[in-house]
Write a structure and sequence with these properties.
This protein is α+β, with helices and mostly antiparallel strands and 124 residues long. It has one domain: Roll (Pnp Oxidase, Chain A), CATH 2.30.110.10. It is built from 5 helices and 7 strands. A 7-stranded antiparallel beta sheet has the order 2-1-5-6-7-4-3, with helices on both faces. Strand 5 and strand 6 form a beta hairpin. It is globular and about 35 Å long. This is DUF2255 family protein.
């Protein structure tokens, strides 16, 4: 499995502009770019669906397992995988640090969004 170059991951972690586009059903066409919050925990990039598992981008990411993101002026081909377990506590803490002043923080660390946590890994 590929890992993020440290400099790229740092730039993504410091930005607030991650847009995600999983492949559509045909596996070749990218979906509409959707702006979402992201956090870095232990050298890995994570995102969550505000609307939980009902989020369209989440459903496509889990089905297709691939797509692209744009963040910090970069466009990257990526893989997606669902996340469960204790790492979610650390991801919650990452959201608390990065988005402490947002009124949307509570829903993003709530059960609905936690159930739609995705790890993003670069393909190249």
């Amino acid at each position: 499995m590929n890992t993020w170059p440290k400099d790229e991951l740092r730039q993504i972690a410091e930005s607030d502009d991650l847009h995600i586009a999983p492949f559509r059903e045909n596996g070749r066409t990218y979906g509409t770019l959707t702006w979402i919050w992201s956090v870095v925990v232990d050298g890995e990039l994570y995102v969550r669906g505000y609307n939980g598992q009902q989020s369209r981008w989440y459903q496509a990411a889990i089905r297709q397992k691939a797509g692209r993101i744009t963040a910090a002026g970069m466009t990257k081909e990526v893989s997606f995988e669902p996340v469960e377990g204790a790492i979610n506590d650390q991801i919650d803490e990452g959201y608390r640090r990065k988005y402490a002043t947002s009124r949307y923080l509570a829903p993003m660390i709530g059960e609905r969004a936690r159930a739609a946590t995705v790890k993003i890994t670069p393909k190249d």
